[in-house]
Amino acid sequence: MVSEKTIGRLSLYRRLLAGLLAENRQNIYSHELASMAGGTAPQVRRDLMSIGYSGSPAKGYEVADLAESINSFLDNPSGTRAAVVGAGNLGRAIMSYFESRRPKLRIAASFDNDPNKIGSEICNRPCYDIADLKTTVARMDIRLGVITVPADIAQEVGDKLVDAGVTGILNFAPKRLHFPENVYVEHVDLTTSMEKVAFFVRSDTNPNAPEA
Amino acid sequence: MVSEKTIGRLSLYRRLLAGLLAENRQNIYSHELASMAGGTAPQVRRDLMSIGYSGSPAKGYEVADLAESINSFLDNPSGTRAAVVGAGNLGRAIMSYFESRRPKLRIAASFDNDPNKIGSEICNRPCYDIADLKTTVARMDIRLGVITVPADIAQEVGDKLVDAGVTGILNFAPKRLHFPENVYVEHVDLTTSMEKVAFFVRSDTNPNAPEA
DNA sequence: TGTTGTGAATCTCTTCACAGCT
DNA sequence: AGCTGTGAAGAGATTCACAACA
To answer: Which of A61, A101, A206, B94 could be bridged to A55 by S-S, CB 3.0 to 4.6 A?
Structure first.
């Protein structure tokens, strides 16, 4: 079993490897990947071990081959379709980020309740009426929902998504959502992230601060 | 010493308490707060213990008093000023979220390099030229920087922020940034978050799935 | 020499379990 | 009876440290 944290780091390694690939880099050592990823060398080795990938003591890891191994570990071979609910600033930001980034993970549509948005194209994908969420999500075989609506309707939107067959949710609304346990939820809490940084801005509280 | 994770949860508790306060709730038990926060009762008690707050076995915790204790633990009494660098969709989303939410944490300005934005008001705060970042950040006594610029200039922007006196950075660019150790950095990696959820969408990989 | 792969040790965080209180 | 506060146990994740190898 591969831990949740390792999954996150593999996603990061893959992105770093893509960059290396673009500059025709052939091989890389664990300590190099670690420093790019902001981690440690043993951790990189453990992570790669966990997906059964082996390097060589002489040359480290082969960039292209490793990237391919991570792809086949992380990606669903038949692809994953996602939808963004709430086509505001944040929703559009997410859609822009994912504009044709990964072939196996596509944001296929967005939903909103604003008549000016419904029926139009937002970030090159159709924007549908949130009232039609259930039927449309089911019809398009969407399995991942990104919630970027205000907190007060987030749970309701989430329930509709799950009802339509979604089994993974990325929630940006500043509210904890609750779902059946077969649904995987990731909360990205921007308010908390800000407040955490604000706390550690006070130098006397920074856990990484050098010894006094 | 209070752990980083506890800080994050305290921020969440505080927000939940504010909601309870709005409905005139007087007291709350650890298990209730836990279920709202998506955690466990002992964890809530430990977190509160770590800031030296005590409840009573009879009535649990006093909502208003606890909220006040968390405030005084988390907030810098003299306030914290923040700036968003990159006034795109994501930058504006963050600014909207923080429109007058917390009195002690204010996003005071944004920076961009788009001549159409520079000099205008974005989300009710002035947008300055990114070229003037150093002087403006120093002048406004901004200590927290939010990076929402493209990956290729994120490190450069971060260096300028640090150079101007910022000691906390919230980075949304899909790239690990490196800073001196007196600077606290939090990476919010939207790509990784999406890819993590995509991985667990496959029911056979969901760590919370019920026993087969 | 410098690397990988990995058992063992360590560290960190969470949960248990129960005394003490009301 | 049902809660809080907390020492002790447990679980998980990270790092150490070293054998094996090129």
So the answer is: A61
Domain boundary among A38, A73, A108: A73
Last residue of a domain, one of A57, A73, A89: A73
Domain housing A177: 80-193
The CATH number of whichever domain residue B41 belongs to comes to 1.10.10.10
Angle between helices A190-201 and B63-74 (to 10 degrees): 50
Give the predicted TM-score (pTM) of the model: 0.96
Residues B134 and B179 in one domain: yes
Q: What is the pLDDT of residues A140-195, one digit of tens each?
A: 999 999 999 999 999 999 999 999 999 999 999 999 999 999 999 999 999 999 99
B191 contacts in chain A (CB < 8 Å):
11, 15, 97-98, 101
- Enclosing H/E stretch for A111: strand A105-112
Structural domain includes residue A209: no
Please report, rounded to whole angstroms, the spatial distance between the CA atom of protein residue A1 and the C1' atom of nucleotide C4: 22
Q: Which amino acid is located at A176 in the chain?
A: R
From the CA of A57 to the C1' of C7: give the distance in Å: 19
Q: How many Å apart are CA B55 and CA B87, to the nearest integer?
A: 44
Q: Residue B122 belongs to what H/E stretch? A: strand B121-122
Q: Which residues contact A37 (CB under 8 A, 6 or more apart)?
A: A9, A12, A13, A16, A44, B176
DSSP state of A29: -
Give CA–CA dist B203/B33, Å, rounded: 29
